[in-house]
Amino acid sequence: MPEIKIRPAREEDLELLIELEHAYTSSNVWQMDIKQDENIIGVNFRDVRLPRVVQLNYPRSPKDLYASWQQSPIVFVGSIDSYPVSYIYLDEDATTGLVRVRDVVVSLEKRRQGIASGLILASEGWACRRERTYMILEMQSKNNPAINLAKKLGYQFCGFQDQYYPNHDLALFFGKSIR
Questions:
Q1: Residues 48, 121: Cα–Cα separation, whole Å
Q2: Cα(54)–Cα(44) distance, integer angstroms
Q3: To 5 degrees, how large is the angle CA 160–CA 161–CA 164?
Q4: How many domains does the chain have?
């Protein structure tokens, strides 16, 4: 893993963070199947391999990201040699002790080097210091790299919401007790 410094974002970082490549590629998706009869509704997800690797656009626009960051309790930046190469955007609910990871983005050339894991682990530490007890990662059902990362870090599937994102994509949620 490269030497990465994780720190709270500053105003001057935001334009650089928006410029990071937010699109990603995936060779698998989680496909949702719904079975319903009079008394039972069943929802299953299955990992489906695509016939080819696809490039997927990020579900939020730069304008939406910037507005969200302005309301966030914290956005952490991962930087190498003082240059931002990644970020994680968090939201929290003090009454429930819940922290939600809304976005994790790593620059294209720095992906698959452990930076996203470092950001999530640093966020868990921040959440614990704020006496939060549970963390949820949200992601598109098409974002197989994020799904694999969540499972690798011990997060368990805990729900979904259809048409969650501005582009109407399905969101998956993976949660973990952090205390």
A1: 28
A2: 23
A3: 135
A4: 1
